[in-house]
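Format notes (please read before filing issues)

Several people have asked whether sequences and structure tokens are stored in separate files. They are not. Every record keeps both together, in the order shown below: the sequence lines, then the token lines. Line labels are part of the format and must not be stripped during preprocessing.
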Amino acid sequence: METQPVVVATYQVTRYYGDGAVVRALDGVDMVVRKGEFLAIMGPSGSGKSTLLNLLGALDRPTGGRIVVNGEDLATIRDLDRFRARTIGFVFQLHNLLPTLTARENVEVPMHGQGISGNAMRQRAEHLLEIVGLADRMNHLPAQLSGGQRQRVAVARALANSPAIILADEPTGSLDTQSGNEIMDLLESINQTQGTTILIVTHDPRVARRTRRILTMRDGKIVDDHPVRGAVWEDLRDLARSRLGEMLLRGDDEALLTQLGTAPDSARAIAVLRSWLSRVAQDIDTLA
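Then the structure lines:
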């Protein structure tokens, strides 16, 4: 992946709000996203992840620093609307489909003004709806589609102009578990089969673990950036940061046994778990 071209790069990006008590929504963010990556940005509410997504999508301007998307410095672009239309695909928590347009017509919307003929737009929209599994629903209005189907239309619309990157803000947040899993299956498939770069903002660790890299934000900064090695490994990383993990790594066996209660082989079980956590802790230190 390191040999792939850079799609997104930020350099000490800041975003402050307020004239009096300044809120540092972003406080010196450096990050690089390469072509073909499938990654997630996680963090608690107010950590800055949605603010960062808006800046990457040229929906807002930073207070300081530089943002380069697809080789262009966003500060130097005069027509941001045109740039967004041809470079960035958006998928939001609420699909934002136009209610009076059919699924096909909604997918065609980003293609208007791009020098594409009406027939070519129609064919492109139909092809994309086939890719997302809605070939039999392309003439339906949003109200005639389920929540999961509407989000599939939103994914197809995001792909309309073959963007350099898709930015997805909580794409499964308004869906039930099954529909959410189906959307993640779809995004994963698009990333693997078409090589589309996809960045997802989510608060759901189950969604983040479906990607191949997780960035964690806190207080406007990226505090962790690591490759996803599997769901169990991610569980161990979470455990290493928990109170239980801290006690295990410190070797507080007596305190642990007092709180957990004694049982046959309990000391051996603790030793085995500590061994695995030590490996994870070393990995976290290496990646930090």
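For reference, the curators noted about this record: Residues 233-287 form one domain. The chain has a mean pLDDT of 88.
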